[in-house]
């Protein structure tokens, strides 16, 4: 059998942890090969070894049958290997076109030939249905488009072995469907794809084979067509997983969050991102903001958290907090699991234990006349690590940057749920988590509700919206177009509201 890539007995050791322990992975030409495993199982590490970012401590790599040393990403590129990273690696202040061409610019007599590059990029963009605005800056475009830029970057370099590290975690359902089609098209053309995802239905839809890792070890490879979703999740977690959310009736209480006529305008002369929105969130209720990405959810949440200016009033437990600082809101009952975990969730160069007290290190519990109580901070971290199963090599002292994506997310969740609060704003809280962890988080949200907290859940995933929420507010072009209950509405109807084809009369 010819394999385009054969990774044999790969071992990669980090301080305190064997991230890859004797892993063998074989990729056939033209196949879509899924890589499945819990958060921290070693998927990104294995792909980083293949892409030349990490040097393995053991094992070898054969590329098209030839044993090869891949010492850096340039080597990988020369071998036709491209990678879309779990957290994109684009230059924020450059345009999409500049990012795609970066590093392989063509020049003529020392002058950049951007015109040709532009032509090639736009041709690829059309050919593969990867719509981009070549002149927009990365910081101004949606994550969906950023991802298309990453894919175009690989295609621009004529890569034919493509690694996608959790490409769908940040995408909307519509974008996911598009990406699935794009991947199928690429594979049909003979490109070979390694695809990491926690979403078993996606693996079922596009992958030919699936290899499973668990805690750094290789568990096995299966043909996807012959394997059920339940079987795959059991291989991954080592036990049966509840894919459904169990919850009782809600008993809503007092209003915790009262939002009246809230508007957010970004940049002068632009359309309002949030337009005159009014709603309430009560104790004992999970209220969900549903909608297609980029319909104002981001701005609404940033306004509630005090990160973005807004007009209108925001009341918390009856008190007007519209003009209060982020810290004031943080210390007066608002917990926030942010959409962008790197920008607003963690300080990546701090340790895990420092990250777990980011908004509370100055409180008497952790500090005394300006001196930090390190033992208390450590104790706190150890408690949350245990409760939330946050996995990393060095426990409390692990640098956040060196944690797996899913475990970074678990750390934020743990901190925000553990903190004293009345309102929990959770934006895409299960993004990037494995099925076992999703089950756990959903249970936590229900527990929050049952213990009398108000929960505002923002989610792009309809399954999550329907399963977890008690009440759904649909946001479309910055306006609330529906206020419905999951039991009274179908997914199709919700889709109509989300796309703006339908609107409730009374909202
Ligand atoms: N640069 C690093 N330094 C130290 N430890 C690391 C580093 N990168 C990863 N690790 C550790 O190696 C283990 C595997 O991490 P990896 O990122 O490969 O997991 P993953 O399977 O991709 O998980 P996720 O689904 O959460 O993205 C984790 O325990 C992580 O903490
Ligand atoms: Mg990963």
Structural account:
The chain is α/β, with parallel strands linked by helices and 507 residues long. The protein has two domains: 235 residues, P-loop containing nucleotide triphosphate hydrolases (Rossmann fold, 3-Layer(aba) Sandwich), CATH 3.40.50.300; 140 residues, Rossmann fold (3-Layer(aba) Sandwich). It contains 17 helices and 24 strands.
Descriptive labels:
single chain, 507 residues, alpha/beta, Rossmann fold, 2 domains, six-stranded mixed sheet, 17 helices, 24 strands, 33% helix, 26% strand, binds magnesium ion
Mean pLDDT: 92
Count of alpha and pi helical runs: 17
CATH class of the largest domain: Alpha Beta
- Give the overall silhouette: globular
What's the main sheet like? 6 strands, mixed
Per the CATH scheme, the topology name of the largest domain is Rossmann fold
What is the CATH architecture term of the largest domain? 3-Layer(aba) Sandwich
Helix percent reads 25-40%
Query: Gap between N and C termini, in Å?
Result: 61 Å
Question: C-alpha Rg, in Å?
Answer: 23 Å
Structure class: alpha/beta
């Amino acid at each position: 059998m010819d394999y385009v890539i054969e990774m044999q007995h790969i071992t990669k050791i980090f301080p305190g942890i064997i991230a890859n322990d004797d892993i063998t992975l074989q990729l056939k030409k033209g196949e879509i090969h899924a890589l499945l495993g819990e958060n921290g199982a070693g998927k990104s590490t294995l792909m980083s070894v293949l892409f030349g970012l990490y040097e393995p401590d053991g094992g070898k790599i054969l590329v098209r049958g030839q044993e090869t040393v891949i010492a850096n990403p340039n080597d990988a590129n020369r071998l036709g290997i491209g990678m879309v990273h779990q957290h994109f690696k684009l230059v924020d202040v450059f345009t999409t076109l500049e990012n795609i061409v970066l590093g392989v610019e063509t020049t003529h007599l020392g002058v950049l030939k951007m015109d040709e590059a532009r032509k090639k990029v736009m041709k690829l963009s059309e050919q593969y249905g990867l719509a981009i605005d070549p002149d927009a800056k990365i910081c101004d475009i949606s994550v969906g488009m950023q991802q298309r830029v990453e894919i175009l970057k690989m295609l621009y370099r004529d890569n034919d072995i493509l690694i996608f590290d959790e490409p769908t975690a940040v995408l909307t359902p519509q974008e996911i469907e598009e990406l699935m089609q794009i991947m199928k098209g690429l594979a049909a053309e003979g490109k070979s794809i390694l695809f990491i995802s926690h979403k078993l239905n996606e693996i079922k839809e596009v992958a030919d084979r699936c290899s499973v890792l668990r805690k750094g070890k290789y568990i096995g490879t299966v043909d996807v067509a012959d394997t059920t979703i339940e079987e795959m999740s059991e291989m991954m977690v080592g036990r049966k997983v509840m894919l459904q959310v169990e919850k009782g009736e809600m008993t809503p209480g007092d209003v915790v969050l009262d939002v009246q006529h809230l508007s957010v305008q970004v940049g002068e002369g632009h359309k309002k991102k949030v337009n005159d929105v009014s709603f309430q969130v009560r104790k004992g209720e999970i209220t969900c903001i549903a909608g297609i990405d980029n319909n104002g959810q981001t701005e609404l949440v940033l306004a509630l958290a005090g990160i973005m200016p807004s007009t209108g009033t925001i009341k918390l437990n009856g008190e007007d907090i519209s003009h209060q600082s982020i810290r004031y809101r943080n210390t007066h009952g608002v917990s926030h699991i942010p959409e962008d975990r790197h920008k607003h969730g963690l300080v990546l160069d701090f340790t895990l234990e420092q990250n777990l007290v980011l908004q509370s290190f100055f409180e008497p519990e952790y500090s005394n006349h300006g001196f930090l109580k390190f033992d208390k901070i450590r104790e706190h971290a150890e408690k949350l690590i245990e409760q939330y199963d946050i996995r990393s090599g060095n426990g409390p002292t692990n640098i956040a940057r060196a944690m797996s994506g899913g475990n970074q997310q678990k750390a934020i969740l743990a901190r925000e749920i553990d903190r004293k609060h009345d309102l929990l704003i959770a934006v895409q809280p299960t993004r990037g988590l494995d099925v076992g962890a999703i089950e756990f988080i959903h249970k936590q949200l229900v527990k929050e509700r049952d213990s009398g907290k108000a929960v505002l859940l923002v989610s792009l995933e309809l399954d999550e919206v329907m399963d977890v929420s008690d009440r759904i507010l649909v946001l479309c072009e910055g306006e609330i177009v529906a206020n419905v209950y999951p039991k009274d509405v179908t997914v199709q109807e919700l889709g109509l509201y989300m796309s703006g084809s339908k609107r409730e009369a009374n909202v």
